[in-house]
Amino acid sequence: MLSVPMPLSVLPESPVDLTIERLGQLGEGVASWQGRTVFVPGAFPGDLVSVHLEQQGKVLRGLLRQVVTPGKDRRPSPCALSGDCGGCDWLELDVAAQRSAKQEIVLSTLEHLGHLQRDRFTVRPLLVAPRDFGYRRRAVLHFAKGSLAYFGRRSHEKVAVSECGALTPVLAPLPGKLAPLLKPLSKDAEEVHLLAEGSKAAFAVMLTGPVTARHVEATEAAVRALRLEGAVLVPKEGSPRLVGKPALRSLSPLRPEVPIYLRPDSFAQAHAEANVGLVTAALYELAPRETDSVLELYSGNGNFTFPLAATAASVLGVESSPVGVELAQRSAREGGVANVRFIQGDARKVCDGLKGEGQRFDLCLADPPRAGAPGLARQVSALGVKRVVYVACDPASLARDAAGLVEEGYKPLALQVVDMFPQTHHVEAVMSFER
């Protein structure tokens, strides 16, 4: 006899009241309705909320209409835009509750997606960021009718912003000041990237086509008017056009004698102070010795490279971004660091090439983008790596790649969660493996 699947419940047209039970991996409140899981953006554990139910693909979401009774961890938002803006989705959640939720989200994701029980490795106390507001040294904005804007919560609707309290003091007023100056190129741009290092700031404009004289003129005028260090115009194809000196000089974490350069068209960790903790945690877990050769995948501008090189015999950094490699090589030259080498290329292809050459490494540190590093386990195993430290900005990618490492024979050792992004559900994690 064939079984007939039960039809999905017909969703009510009027709002329903739900009690939020926990927080999901993407920072949304999680509730139940007629045995189904409902994800409610903007809601927190203990909230009694009125929501409009909506089917989005396979997911049932509740669009928040009203917080009927707030939970004990809900607090007033310090930002007038927080109800619409998609940037700081946990602004109305108590900081202590944010921190405990982040630790639990990473652990539960490792358990449910990676099948790694938390009693199989050491769980270190959460590493807390020294500033939980006004800390972001980089931001991505979009043009919207003469203004610069963030994307809205779980949408591409644009929320205009003139000043942002999440940004460092030098960047906070920049969206409102920069927007009118960049109006001549607004129709030809996809994004504007802001970057700060201390009191210095720069920006990049990601264009939909080639760089024109009009773009350069407007950008030069904006740099002069706002007394910025410089800017980068990034065409759809071809090389970036630099205006002024957009590479901002900083110091290598744990190794201040080596300069580190940041550029607004290249990746940089958003929280400068928390980044020092992140690097410290990664080095502690990797524990390089003076005889070790280290393979660093997704090495960026050398954020981890130079602290690693202070102890290890050698470090080979692999990075796909030409700008990242250029900045890292500049740091090595100016800092006189001779035991590092950088290869520009796709991590997987470079690892295949290294394997073909018969190369071997003692240790590996990987800091992949949000999509993670599929195939990492086979790559490091083939290169003879004994210990791996994985730096993750997405719990699901960490869980998938951690499961792959365990399947390849690596034992999970320790997990360090780092609160790199206060007021948001985003989190950074450092996890170590050994065989």
From TrEMBL:
Keyword Iron in annotation: yes
InterPro entries membership: MeTrfase_TrmA_AS (IPR030390), MeTrfase_TrmA_CS (IPR030391), NA-bd_OB-fold (IPR012340), SAM-dependent_MTases_sf (IPR029063), U5_MeTrfase_fam (IPR010280)
GO biological process annotation, one example: rRNA base methylation
Gene Ontology molecular function, alphabetical: 4 iron, 4 sulfur cluster binding; rRNA (uridine-C5-)-methyltransferase activity
Keyword Transferase found: yes
Keywords, sorted A to Z: 4Fe-4S, Iron, Iron-sulfur, Metal-binding, Methyltransferase, S-adenosyl-L-methionine, Transferase
Residues annotated as catalytic: 393
Superkingdom as given in the UniProt entry: Bacteria
Binding residues for S-adenosyl-L-methionine: 269, 298, 319, 367
PROSITE patterns: SAM_MT_RNA_M5U, TRMA_1, TRMA_2
Protein family (similarity comment): Belongs to the class I-like SAM-binding methyltransferase superfamily. RNA M5U methyltransferase family.
Protein name (database record): RNA methyltransferase, TrmA family protein
Organism whose genome encodes this protein: Hyalangium minutum
Lineage: Bacteria, Pseudomonadati, Myxococcota, Myxococcia, Myxococcales
